[in-house]
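Section 5: illustrative case.
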């Protein structure tokens, strides 16, 4: 009997030792972890951001925890994030390849591509194409204004009424990027846009959610029919819709005369037909969907946050409108150039981005080689999470880190300035490639709408709730707004 107990005890210890989560030597500190589960139980399932903040208080700006058996390093605060992503740029520019999100996207696209030629070529191609299709030229501004007209018409129909802006802002952002990618826009009731936006927004919540964490931590559960299967179904739906659209565009295209991103990509495939190329039709679908997703759920959630705060801080809304009226007097439409004469509006947009913290944990990175950070050793292949929110509300970096206040972006003379800790688009070689488009959209959309309408919080809805819903993107809880044509219009 005693021998059996000792043997059992030895077996248990052997197993614990085998599956123990071990930190490499001189690795960033962090909480002790359970075998197999890692620190899964340390993290709140609905929103782990507060738990990450608690761990930062205990272990410092660079700490580690375990996602299942895998060690992960969390970067907090401007200094650590910039030292990794900018100073040691190429060391930290990889992406993990074996997570839930990789499996859903089947290894295509630019966002999750590892640091290497496939990523480099597709990033360069996307940036060039975005530039050729109008960033820096007037055509992108015209597209944005064209799309805005549909929204304005909707709002005018609802003048004096209360509406839910959720779908509206997703539709604007989605249609703007659709025009760049596919050369077409969709009516807001169209099934294509409704389905795509539904799948994008659902997957953005599933991808960082508790079931994805379980999927990443315990590979054994991956084949089980658990709620993460829904994300795979959504990807299938989106791929089916994209395939139909791509086939249609292929029929219509004139080689050598590209009208949109898809045409340019197909020309690129033709150009490289005789070589081993990273440009393939499968990658075309993956890249188009990446840009569509990245360009929809981010800009729209930032707009939703911006308008939520503008309704709650009506004196800020009024001051924006005064500046807009003054600068645009006699002008038909606002241009992106006008931002240089609108320091307050610029400050409000940036402050909306700061408090929105739209992509709180960035996209996860991975070290591409053995490296060092702030005195710690970090082996190749370590997953890195830049916690961007910890820079966006970092004490010492902002005049008012924990409140909505456009003064955060205004100097003593009332001029607009951008503090170093403003990192909503991340930093370094993997930094958001849609930053230029997003900044143009935010400025033109917010300025045009504020010029035309007052946005009023409906009294009967009680107090606004600023607590966001967690996911790859942070989303304001659904709210309603009253839109009222301004007296000057
Ligand atoms: C307010 C709007 C936006 C915010 C806050 C935002 C934020 C981000 C962040 C934090 C990342 C991760 C960077 C990293 O890994 O370090 C990212 C990546 C990316 N974003 Fe955005 N984004 C926005 C709009 C857009 C738009 C409009 C597009 C489409 C044109 C876009 C396309 C991308 C792509 C393709 C990547 C992956 C880049 C790479 O891996 O090289 N984003 N974005």
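Designed sequence:
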């Amino acid at each position: 009997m005693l021998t059996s107990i000792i043997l059992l005890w030895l077996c248990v210890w052997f197993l614990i030792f085998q599956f123990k989560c071990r930190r490499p030597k001189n690795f960033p500190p962090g909480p002790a972890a359970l075998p197999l589960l890692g620190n899964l139980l340390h993290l709140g399932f609905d929103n782990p951001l507060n738990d990450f903040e608690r761990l930062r208080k205990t272990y410092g700006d660079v700490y580690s925890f375990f996602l299942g058996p895998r060690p992960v390093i969390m970067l907090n605060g401007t200094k650590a994030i910039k030292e990794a992503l900018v100073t040691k740029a190429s060391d930290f520019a990889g992406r993990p390849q074996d997570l839930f999100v990789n499996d859903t996207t089947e290894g295509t696209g630019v966002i999750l591509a590892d640091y290497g030629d496939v990523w480099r070529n597709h990033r360069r191609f996307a940036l060039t194409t975005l530039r050729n299709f109008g960033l820096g030229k007037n055509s992108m501004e015209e597209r944005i204004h064209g799309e805005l007209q549909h929204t304005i018409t909707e709002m005018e129909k609802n003048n004096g009424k209360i509406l839910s802006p959720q779908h509206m802002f997703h539709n604007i952002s989605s249609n703007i990027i659709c025009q760049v990618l596919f050369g077409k826009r969709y009516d807001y009731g169209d099934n294509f846009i409704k389905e795509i936006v539904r799948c994008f927004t659902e997957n953005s919540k599933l991808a960082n959610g508790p079931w994805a964490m379980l999927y990443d931590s315990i590979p054994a559960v991956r084949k089980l029919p658990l709620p993460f299967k829904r994300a795979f179904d959504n990807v299938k739906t989106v791929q089916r819709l994209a395939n139909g659209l791509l086939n249609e565009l292929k029929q219509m295209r004139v080689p050598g005369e590209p009208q949109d991103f898809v045409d340019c990509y197909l020309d690129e495939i033709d150009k490289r037909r005789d070589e081993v190329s990273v440009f393939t039709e499968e990658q075309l679908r993956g890249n188009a969907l990446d840009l569509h997703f990245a360009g929809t759920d981010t800009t729209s959630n930032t707009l939703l946050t911006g308008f939520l705060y503008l309704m709650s801080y009506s004196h800020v809304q009024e001051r924006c409108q005064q500046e807009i009226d003054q600068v645009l007097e006699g002008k038909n439409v606002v241009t992106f150039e006008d931002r240089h004469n609108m320091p307050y509006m610029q400050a409000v947009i940036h402050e909306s981005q700061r408090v929105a913290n739209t992509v709180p944990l960035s996209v996860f990175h991975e070290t591409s080689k053995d490296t060092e950070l702030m005195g710690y050793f970090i082996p190749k292949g370590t997953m890195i999470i830049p916690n961007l929110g910890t820079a966006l509300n970092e004490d010492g970096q902002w005049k008012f880190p924990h409140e909505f206040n456009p003064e955060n972006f205004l100097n003593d003379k009332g001029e607009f300035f951008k503090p170093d800790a403003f990192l909503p688009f991340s930093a370094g070689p993997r930094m958001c490639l849609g930053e230029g488009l997003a900044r143009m959209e935010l400025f033109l959309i917010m300025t045009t709408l504020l010029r035309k309408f007052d946005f009023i919080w409906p009294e009967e809805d009680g107090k606004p709730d600023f607590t966001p819903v967690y996911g790859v993107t942070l989303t304001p809880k659904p709210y309603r707004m009253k839109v009222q044509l301004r007296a000057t219009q």
